[in-house]
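I'd like us to work through together how a protein chain folds, taking it slowly. To get us started, please write out a protein record for me. Label the sequence line and the structure token line clearly, so we can match residues to local backbone shapes. Once you have written the record down, we can walk along the chain together.
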Amino acid sequence: MSFRLLKQEIINPGLCQGCGLCTGSCKHLIMEDLKPTLDDFCIMERDGEACGKCYSKCPQIRLTKVSKETPLDILALKSTDEDIHRNAVSGGFVTTLNKYLLESGKVKKLVEVQSMNGRPVSVITSDPNDVRKYSGVSYGRSGVLEKMVEVLGDADHGPVGIVGVPCEIRGAKGIEDEMNTEIFKIGLFCNANIRGGESEEGEIYSPCRRSCPAGVDASGYINEIRQGNFQEAVDLIREMNPLPSICGRVCTHECEYNCTLIGTNHPIAIRELKKYITDWEMEHGRKIPIESGKSGNKKVAIIGSGPAGLTASYYLAQLGYKPTIFEKSDKTGGMLRFGVPKFRLPDEVLDYDVEFVKQAGVDVKLNSPIGPDLTFEDLKNQGYEAIFLAVGQYQPLTLKLEGEDLPNVHTAVEFLVDRKYRYWENLEEFKDKTVGILGGGPVAIDVAQTAIRLGAKKAIMVEIRSEEQLKMAREEIPAAEMPFIEYKYDTSTKKFSQTDDGRLVFNCHKVSQQPGENGRTNFEKIEGSEYSFDVDAIVIAIGQTGDLDLIDQASGSKLEKDRSKIKVDEITFETNLPGIFAGGDIIVRGKNVAVAAIAHGREAATSIDRYLRGQDLKEGRINRSKMFFHPILPPKDKSKKPPTEEIQTIWRNFEEIDGIFDESMAIKEANRCFNCNRFCSHCQDFAAIHADITAGEIGSEKDFTTVVIWTKRAQRIVQEMLKADLLVTGVVSKEAVDLAIDKKMKRRILEHSHTPREKIYNWLKLNGSGSISTLGEKLDMKVKDVRFNALRLVQKGQLVMAVEADEPIFSLADE
């Protein structure tokens, strides 16, 4: 059981969780890029010495079925320390507990995790004041068990504790038993999200999948890519996202923001891999026929053919319903079609995914707006038993500034739609002119890039936010286009005016950002900073909002709204009207990105299915509002993209500019992936039953931590903390915790393939005897591996060896 076997069975397949127990147990191993590797040599492989510590100590090697244990108590707790609570993920319980353990002397040294360059790294804490620094840090692949072995190597270590995820706690339990010592074990609910769905059994997400609003199994399809299974990779994406070709171009790739490699190496270029395999499918033709959904009788109306509407209709067709999309325009795709320039999303790519959805059994009615001529009541009379509203946001936002009504002042939506499909009408419109753009985000960049393709010599972006806040958006601009684009950061626009010769004027001043109430930012004018500049045209690109006039006419103004957006239940996506659902950009707290709209459409399809079958819409479903609604946080690191295509001339060039991997580049990039949390799909221990106490978010109200108490010493400590007013209690749903535990316990235990010695022994047990060459052929093993492992079995007295002719013959030893 050499390191080679550990690498073959655990590290290479992506089962290693980076706990470091193997490196802590063997001086010949080190952690490199979050994986164990040989520092010099394996004594078993080089010298033939009996060892196997690295293999036998790995928590992932020997699994036993988890029996459901009954905890002593389940509580919802919140820290009374406001500084701790402010930085905590939930209620701040773990940080408060760690501080108390060190202050009271119940633990002298505590192994926990700090964030270093955006990745978790294990640390030994002895000062109670240090624990605040580690509040809210993510766990996993941090080497906590390696650090625990280091702590226990000190003869004067005193009482010790550890914080870790369930697999790390299981390893700590093994250390505790082997070394006959006592470790206070603080477990965390498995930090991979549990997706709530009727047919799913608590599937565990890798960090990248956990960050994807649509829940796409990124590590799964990357694993297919590394094996050259490109069609299988695309099919896996479509299990959660029926628009992979579109997302290969315009997805915000939040999956990359949580990549385990951040801080050690650049994150995997997941979006670019998706783009490669979807282009491969378009080029080679889909090998597997597209299956239409089951024929059904119940009809569902989908209002809008953007990403939310296309997704909901696809999954409803798969569930056996007859979905019909009602699209108000003459083309499908919504803002993907009309608002995204062709050089970012070519029409043929969009059409490919739309056709896939239609072939699944979805009917599309173009030029069919909802409104006075097609009301909800009309749809019901036509036999539609449920409605999904996915109308998007077409109404441009403005600041209602003086001068917005001047000639040549445009809004981004109007500007992009007109120039995308009608730009040939006036080729000289912006030739050698300067375009001023109010705004600096992704839509404003689309406007700037479109303007310079239509001849503009300069696009000036006026943005109230800082350069750092716009870093993520600005980095998407190709280097060849940057000389034509200028940013004016920290700038507020007071009004637009006009010169005598008809040019337009931005009248601006600089601002400083100051903290306001409820976490908001106040932009305060810097006195004396006023300035102005002239441009030939202005485009206002500060966002869009929903135009609900037609929806109100269709519903009789009965839909509950908030600031031009529709209110929905954030688990079911049902509105206040039974049988009417909504999703995408038009709903309150929508993220305004395509991949979130795709997630909304899929969840809404599940709800509609339950509604039409008379089932509870919420039963067994987990609130995933963090994935569906929370804003995108800037990444700590970014992936390496393929080179941008060289542009000979930008003017009138609307060809796609982003580069694409070739096959060798894609496989090389895929091979960098750790395949994180593959093991977690088999682990049954959600609640860390080997811990003294376990903490997590599931089951508690907002700002509280769910705490599961397993041992009496943990129970005493919590009671002491409550008595000392360090914690307050809240309401906990023990049923929700039970549901999470039960779902994970349904998983099948991962069965590793037999070791070489087990294979040799079992074959000889069935067949009596065999030579080295015979064993090598039958077991598909190298001759040197057969010889090495068979001789070790002889040394252990399990086999006997007889030399006949040119090679030894092995057979089982007498019992």
In short: The longest helix spans residues 594-612. DSSP finds 29 helices and 29 strands in the chain. The first strand starts at residue 29 and ends at 32.
